Amino acid sequence: MAQEIRKIEFTMAETHEALKVFFMKTGQELLSGALTKLTSDPGVPGRLIALFDQKTMALRDKDMLAALLVFCQDKSIPIPKDGKKMVKGEGDKVVILLKC
What is the DSSP string of 7-70? Predict the structure, then answer.
Protein backbone atom coordinates (compact mmCIF):
# COMPACT_ATOMS: atom_id res chain seq x y z
CA MET A 1 0.00 0.00 0.00
CA ALA A 2 1.31 3.44 -0.89
CA GLN A 3 2.13 5.81 1.94
CA GLU A 4 2.54 9.57 1.98
CA ILE A 5 5.34 11.14 4.01
CA ARG A 6 5.24 14.89 4.46
CA LYS A 7 8.05 17.02 5.87
CA ILE A 8 7.53 20.51 7.30
CA GLU A 9 10.61 22.54 8.26
CA PHE A 10 10.67 25.39 10.75
CA THR A 11 13.39 28.00 11.23
CA MET A 12 14.81 28.67 14.68
CA ALA A 13 12.86 31.96 14.82
CA GLU A 14 9.57 30.17 14.05
CA THR A 15 10.37 27.43 16.56
CA HIS A 16 11.23 30.00 19.24
CA GLU A 17 7.96 31.83 18.58
CA ALA A 18 6.04 28.55 18.90
CA LEU A 19 7.83 27.69 22.16
CA LYS A 20 7.10 31.11 23.67
CA VAL A 21 3.37 30.68 23.04
CA PHE A 22 3.39 27.08 24.32
CA PHE A 23 5.29 27.93 27.50
CA MET A 24 3.08 30.96 28.17
CA LYS A 25 -0.11 28.86 27.77
CA THR A 26 1.21 26.05 29.98
CA GLY A 27 2.59 28.36 32.67
CA GLN A 28 6.16 27.12 32.28
CA GLU A 29 9.27 29.27 32.11
CA LEU A 30 11.34 29.36 28.93
CA LEU A 31 15.03 30.22 29.04
CA SER A 32 15.86 33.75 27.96
CA GLY A 33 17.92 34.50 24.88
CA ALA A 34 17.68 33.45 21.28
CA LEU A 35 17.09 29.82 20.32
CA THR A 36 20.18 28.92 18.30
CA LYS A 37 20.11 25.13 17.98
CA LEU A 38 17.81 22.19 18.57
CA THR A 39 18.90 18.57 18.36
CA SER A 40 17.49 15.20 19.26
CA ASP A 41 19.02 13.80 22.44
CA PRO A 42 20.91 10.64 21.38
CA GLY A 43 20.85 9.26 24.93
CA VAL A 44 17.15 9.72 25.68
CA PRO A 45 14.45 8.84 23.14
CA GLY A 46 11.63 11.37 23.05
CA ARG A 47 13.77 14.28 24.23
CA LEU A 48 15.22 17.28 22.44
CA ILE A 49 18.03 19.58 23.58
CA ALA A 50 17.52 23.29 22.91
CA LEU A 51 20.40 25.77 23.02
CA PHE A 52 19.54 29.32 24.10
CA ASP A 53 22.63 31.59 23.94
CA GLN A 54 24.97 28.94 25.42
CA LYS A 55 22.39 27.59 27.93
CA THR A 56 20.77 24.21 27.30
CA MET A 57 17.26 23.10 28.05
CA ALA A 58 15.75 19.64 27.69
CA LEU A 59 12.33 19.48 26.02
CA ARG A 60 9.96 16.58 25.53
CA ASP A 61 9.38 15.94 21.84
CA LYS A 62 5.61 15.78 22.42
CA ASP A 63 5.71 19.31 23.89
CA MET A 64 7.67 20.56 20.88
CA LEU A 65 5.22 18.84 18.56
CA ALA A 66 2.26 20.44 20.35
CA ALA A 67 3.90 23.88 20.15
CA LEU A 68 4.57 23.52 16.42
CA LEU A 69 1.08 22.18 15.68
CA VAL A 70 -0.46 25.23 17.39
CA PHE A 71 1.94 27.42 15.38
CA CYS A 72 0.76 25.73 12.16
CA GLN A 73 -2.87 26.26 13.13
CA ASP A 74 -2.24 29.96 13.83
CA LYS A 75 -0.44 30.37 10.48
CA SER A 76 -3.05 28.33 8.52
CA ILE A 77 -0.55 25.62 7.60
CA PRO A 78 -2.64 22.51 6.89
CA ILE A 79 -1.78 19.42 8.96
CA PRO A 80 -3.67 16.14 8.50
CA LYS A 81 -5.40 15.00 11.69
CA ASP A 82 -4.78 11.34 11.00
CA GLY A 83 -1.38 9.81 10.65
CA LYS A 84 1.74 9.54 12.73
CA LYS A 85 3.55 12.77 13.59
CA MET A 86 7.17 12.96 14.66
CA VAL A 87 9.41 15.93 15.44
CA LYS A 88 13.17 16.03 14.93
CA GLY A 89 15.79 18.62 15.71
CA GLU A 90 18.25 19.12 12.88
CA GLY A 91 20.61 21.80 14.13
CA ASP A 92 19.45 25.05 12.58
CA LYS A 93 15.91 23.83 11.84
CA VAL A 94 13.16 21.70 13.33
CA VAL A 95 11.21 19.21 11.25
CA ILE A 96 7.78 17.60 11.62
CA LEU A 97 7.46 14.33 9.70
CA LEU A 98 3.94 13.13 8.95
CA LYS A 99 3.12 9.62 7.76
CA CYS A 100 -0.38 9.27 6.31
Answer: EEEEEHHHHHHHHHHHHHHHT--PPSS-EEEEEE-TTSTTEEEEEETTEEEEEEHHHHHHHHHH
Q: Report the C-alpha gap between 4 and 89 in whole angstroms.
A: 21
pLDDT tens digits along 14-60:
999 999 999 999 999 999 899 999 988 888 888 999 999 889 999 99
Q: Is 81 helix (H, G, I), strand (E, B) or coil?
A: coil
> Distance of alpha carbon 15 from its chain centroid, rounded?
6
Q: Which residues contact 28 (CB under 8 A, 6 or more apart)?
A: none
Return the half-sphere exposure (C-beta side, CA atoms, 13 A cut-off) of residue 26.
Answer: 14
